[in-house]
Amino acid sequence: MSADIWKTKRWFPQYPELSTEPLPLEPYISEEQFALEREHLWPHVWLMVGRVEELKEPGQFFIKEIPVCNASILTVRGRDGIIRSFHNVCSHRGNQVCWEASGSTNAFTCRFHGFTYDLEGNLKAVPDAQMFFNLNKTENGLTKLATDIWEGFIFVNLDPNPRETLKEYLGEVGERLTGHPFHEAPHFYEYKTEVHCNWKVVIFGFLEAWHVVFLHGKSAGDIFGSKENPFGHNLLIKLSKKHRFISLYGNPDYQPTTVGSMAFRFGKSLMQAGSDPEKMLRTMNPTKSQSWSFDLNNIFPNFQLNVVNGAWYCHRFWPTAVDRTIWESRMYFPTPLTAGDRFFQEYSKVTTRNVLLEDGSLLEKTQAVLASGAKKHWHLQDEEIAIRHFHNVVQEYVETSSPR
After folding, report:
1. N or C: which end of the chain has fewer CB within 10 A?
2. pTM, entire model
3. Which CATH architecture has domain 3-25+176-400?
4. Superfamily of domain 46-163, CATH level 4
5. For residue range 72-115, what is the model confidence (pLDDT) as tens digits?
């Protein structure tokens, strides 16, 4: 690829419907905006709550709290093998039926008054039932949620009548990644924290690679930037109806540390670059570039799925307030079988953690000064087009109360 390509504005000319004007800051500090998002966005989108590997056997369950929707979601594999999700709310007095974050059970019994539900959500037992007035057990099971599975990812929709099926909602990103062997890397490490930052500002930190050579200059700058491409401009950016895809550049001449070289003998991670495109699956590196590091799939509103050659990573961002976000990050690898496998995964976990800590510290500093009013707009450049696109999708939900 010619060095001159990195000096060319390549993305906004492909999407002339997107404005190049400065982006207003008000939606990232406004309580009114956050209330509109809570009402018009979050209850009407498909949200990824977990993986099928977490529910291998009937009776296995997990709870997912979704604070922005004031919702506690119970997801369980039934005796028939089907995975279902329910509001974790008892039909009697509204207590949370299940208090454990995950586990295995034969039935769910409310600790308040003993109402018992089976794995399919049916109300099966009511203590002192003769004292109730016309209580119909058939009509008072757990409240079911729309639940669907794509490539092993479990999604729920809090809308009783979803506007789109999951397949329709995922659109192009679902088609592109269908068949990717996510199940071959089921072993994960997780980091979780609450960041003092608006959820959209957090996500914006992962929608461009331009910052890497600056913010991550010592930890990862040489991986994602080079003499040929000094600012780490992306190989490809594609914008779809709701989602964003970015294929990131990787410096093929990057020389890892001595410890890194030892670790990379046993696997591939984000902290690596340069792979033979002919040996890759069709679901990754669409430009077939030898200067490739990983593909980023930003699935609206809060699920980021990063595909590496041999592993995959994901982030989920759950707002709790206009300036608070729960950030969950998982790194998935094949199940380690040797000491070398484990060494590589530990190295990858720690080096990735260091980069994420740099991201988190900057994001909180950004949010801390946005409310000052010193600046009213952001000025975006060509490599930041995905930020503009994300902003527009959010605003369309908020302003029209429906997706485009």
Report:
1. C
2. 0.94
3. Alpha-Beta Complex (3.90)
4. Rieske [2Fe-2S] iron-sulphur domain (2.102.10.10)
5. 999 999 999 999 999 999 999 999 999 999 999 999 999 999 99
